[in-house]
């Protein structure tokens, strides 16, 4: 049975497949960019999934050729201020890390912006060869968010985190696997087989043991996540009102190189 998102405008589905909950972002025309309604509904879904005793594992992915290319420009539509948008995005990322159920990210294509935070908050991350990871925030006068200032460093170390965050270039799936950012890079044909095998094993494992194991691992490896989300909110709210962001966003829409102030 397919369960729609909590909001009628949310672009995702949550589908029970035996003991596995398959969460799929469904905005392929925008490469699965996520608006505020979708971000909020995804957070609700991960937070409440454990209330269903029949669900033992979660797989999150994107429809079509992309995993998630970040926040849709319409995320602030309807009068939502930057503080609210940042809070809702932080809750989504936190809900993935805090759900007692193991979460697998199936990265089937481009993964950018807050989509990187969504992916790296998962417990196991498998990517297709065609996928890549991108934190292009500084290219438009912003800073990385979605917990990525902590999540990238926790997995791949300071050097990779600095290069991704400061230079804003793409990291291929192969390079991400080599750096330890993800568990494995697979051919497009092999991706589903690997993800399904891991999900099936987890869904029939000892629920409480897996929950306590996840808690212990995250307590060590993601101890700085909440502090990172708080710093990102403070910085991003400031930057969203800056001349550099106005120039960066304008340049992006006009498909030209941004010229930032001195």
Outline of this structure?
The chain is 46% helix and 16% strand. The protein is built from 10 helices and 10 strands.
Helix content: 40-55%
Radius of gyration: 17 Å
Question: Count of DSSP helices?
Answer: 10
Biggest pleated sheet: 7 strands, mixed
Parts with pLDDT < 50 across at least 5 consecutive residues: 1-7
Strand content: 15-25%
Q: Helix and strand succession?
A: EEEHEHEEHEEHHEHEHHHH
Helix-strand makeup class: alpha/beta
Within the largest sheet, what's the order of strands? 1-2-3-4-5-7-10
What is the overall shape?
globular
Mean pLDDT score, rounded?
A: 94
The beta-strand count equals 10
Distance between the termini: 55 Å
Protein name: Enoyl-CoA hydratase
InterPro entries: ClpP/crotonase-like_dom_sf, Enoyl-CoA_hydra/iso, Enoyl-CoA_hydra_C
Pfam families: ECH_1
Family: Belongs to the enoyl-CoA hydratase/isomerase family.
């Amino acid at each position: 049975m397919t369960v729609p998102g909590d909001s009628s405008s949310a672009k995702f589905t949550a589908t029970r497949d035996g003991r596995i909950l398959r969460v799929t972002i469904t905005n392929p025309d925008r490469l699965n960019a996520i608006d505020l309604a979708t971000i909020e509904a995804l957070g609700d879904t991960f937070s409440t999934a454990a209330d269903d005793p029949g669900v033992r594992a979660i797989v999150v992915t994107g429809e079509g050729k992309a995993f998630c290319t970040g926040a849709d420009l319409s995320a602030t539509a309807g009068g939502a201020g930057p503080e609210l948008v940042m809070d809702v995005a932080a809750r989504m990322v936190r809900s993935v890390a805090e759900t007692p159920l193991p979460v697998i990210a199936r990265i089937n294509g481009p993964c950018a912006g807050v989509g990187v935070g969504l992916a790296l908050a998962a417990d196991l991350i498998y990517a297709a060869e065609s996928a890549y990871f991108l934190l292009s925030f500084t290219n438009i006068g912003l800073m990385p968010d979605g917990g990525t200032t902590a999540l990238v460093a926790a997995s791949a170390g300071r050097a990779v985190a600095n290069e991704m965050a400061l230079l804003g270039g793409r990291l291929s799936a192969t390079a991400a696997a080599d750096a330890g950012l993800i568990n494995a890079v697979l051919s497009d044909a092999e991706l589903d087989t690997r993800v399904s095998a891991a999900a099936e094993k987890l869904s029939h494992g000892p629920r409480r043991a897996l929950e306590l194991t996840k808690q212990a691992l995250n307590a060590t490896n993601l101890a700085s996540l909440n502090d990172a989300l708080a710093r990102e909110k403070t910085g991003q709210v400031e930057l969203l009102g800056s001349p550099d962001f106005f120039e960066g966003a304008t340049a992006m829409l006009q498909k030209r190189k941004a010229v930032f102030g001195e």
